[in-house]
Amino acid sequence: MIINLKDYIPLEVIPRQGNVKPLNVIEGHSSLQLNARNCRKSLILPKFIEFNDNDFMAIGLYLAEGYKAVKFDKKTYHSGEIDFAMSELNCLELFCNFIEKIGISRTELKICVNLNINFKYQISEEEVLDYWIKSLNLTRASLRPTSRVSYTGTQGKKISTCTGKHGCLHLTYASIIFRSFFLNFINKIFDEAIASKNISVICLILKGFFAGDGHVEYSIKPKRKGLYFCNQNHAFIKKLINSLQILGVNSYFITDPNNLKTNGKSLVIAKYSYMKILIDYEITDLISYKKEKSLALMNSYNIINGRFSNKLKVNASDQI
């Protein structure tokens, strides 16, 4: 699938402070130059990019785990950066490949790590940073000048099974112009998939989203079963509902952190037949422990024997 990035460029740039600015585009034969008043650095994008399935999953990953907020009620609206944070190497690699396709080299990204405090004396900060640099083909120049490793959690508290000893890596790129373009781009791709009811693309975006902000609930005491799509944004939850309904998922509920013992708002699929749809479309499969737990959840109903049928055989990029 070939995409013309000119179709995804916003009309305006949202600065860190002050008034929204018009975005100017200079179109070349194979590139696009974006600039805005008082922005010191213009942005050069390829005019055309070739999308594949991994790119749609990368979009879902950023929609889940990327920094997207714009707060016009504050003096500073946002940080001026895109910021993607995860601890899963395969997901970080998907994002790096995607961002390079748009024209930003992975070596231009700045990195820092959040590490659980209980690992502080088990692994050195240099070991943590070297792991990510070598694993993702980054450079020492990618390290932030300060705050390269910060610590989270509580000393002595039980560590979650999904918390790794190498911590959670943040990949950031500072550019107000790129931030405005990128957020418009990925949201419009998702909107177009919903509008056209493109099941393949929707599944891939949801697969990435679930890897980032999905949760498999399977506990005996208390008895709880369900697939959770966690998100605080009301408008985005409506997009999730629309996309799931296109797949045939018509039963769900939304948790309310004010009434339940939850950390945030989630869209929950708890009925067996609708969870099975998501399993069939491999939406829970990108991260291995989530895939294994979702299959264990479904097998607990004593209905499924072996692997579900595969409904998604055609690449999303071939369907458009």
Q: What report would you give on this structure?
A:
The chain has 9 helices and 15 strands. The longest helix has 20 residues, at 176-195. It is an alpha+beta fold and 320 residues long. The protein has a domain at 197-319: Homing endonucleases (Endonuclease I-creI). Helix content is 34%, strand content 21%. Strands 8-11-9-10 form a 4-stranded mixed beta sheet. It has a 4-stranded antiparallel beta sheet with strand order 12-13-15-14. Strands 4-5-6 form a 3-stranded antiparallel beta sheet, with no helix packed on it. Helix 1 crosses helix 2 (89-101), helix 1 packs across helix 4 (176-195) and helix 1 (53-65) crosses helix 5. Residues 304-315 have low confidence and may be disordered. It has helices at residues 53-65, 89-101, 125-135, 176-195, 199-213, 234-246, 272-280, 288-299, 316-319; strands at residues 2-4, 12-13, 21-22, 24-27, 31-35, 43-46, 48-50, 81-86, 110-116, 149-152, 168-174, 214-219, 224-230, 253-254, 266-269.
User: How helix-rich are the residues, as a percent range?
Assistant: 25-40%
Q: List low-pLDDT spans.
A: 304-315
Total strand segments: 15
Structural class comes to alpha+beta
Q: What is the CATH homologous superfamily assignment of the domain at 197-319?
A: Homing endonucleases
Cα-atom Rg, whole angstroms?
20 Å
- At CATH level 3, the topology of the domain at 197-319 is Endonuclease I-creI
Largest sheet, in brief, is:
4 strands, mixed
Protein traits:
single chain; 320 residues; alpha+beta; Endonuclease I-creI; four-stranded mixed beta sheet; four-stranded antiparallel beta sheet; 9 helices; 34% helix; 21% strand; globular
